[in-house]
Design goal:
143 residues, alpha/beta, two-stranded parallel sheet, 5 helices
Length: 143
């Protein structure tokens, strides 16, 4: 998560803020990481990343776009929640960047695409698509 925040904050033309949804029990001296502009501390324990007390529900249900990069169990959980939420509510748009791999913690490209996830091979491809979609002036566009 720190790498994503650092990447966002390193772009001088980035729009918006870096938000960190912090699970309960994280000490304020070490959480959030230095690249979080707006920390949201919760009461959620989050032992199970797809369980009802997981902060991942806030992350997904608040997003218009979810971009999954290679990662571990938490990334897979967020991706599964995003797919589930998109199927029920037609948002968020879900993208996956599969640089140097063909899966995200066991979810294979074919499974992702069958679930409606748009897969890219490089971060540059994701960025190009986002730039084109964010350039839309249609406020009702799902991005």
């Amino acid at each position: 998560m720190a790498a994503a925040g650092q990447g966002f904050c390193s772009i001088s033309s980035s729009l918006g803020v870096s938000i960190g949804v912090i699970p309960a029990g994280k000490p304020p001296t070490t959480y959030p990481n230095p690249w979080v502009h707006l920390p949201i501390r919760t009461h959620l324990q989050g032992a199970d990343p797809t369980g009802p007390d997981s902060r991942n529900h806030i992350n997904i249900r608040s997003a218009r776009i979810v971009i999954a990069l290679t990662g571990g169990r938490g990334t897979r959980a967020e991706l599964e929640l995003a797919i589930e939420h998109h199927a029920a509510h037609n948002r968020p748009m879900v993208y996956a960047c599969l640089e140097d791999t063909d899966d995200i913690h066991g979810l294979r490209r074919g499974e992702l695409e069958a679930a409606g996830v748009v897969c890219f091979q490089t971060a540059r491809e994701v960025a190009g698509t986002l730039a084109a979609r964010l350039g839309s002036t249609d406020a009702s566009s799902p991005l």
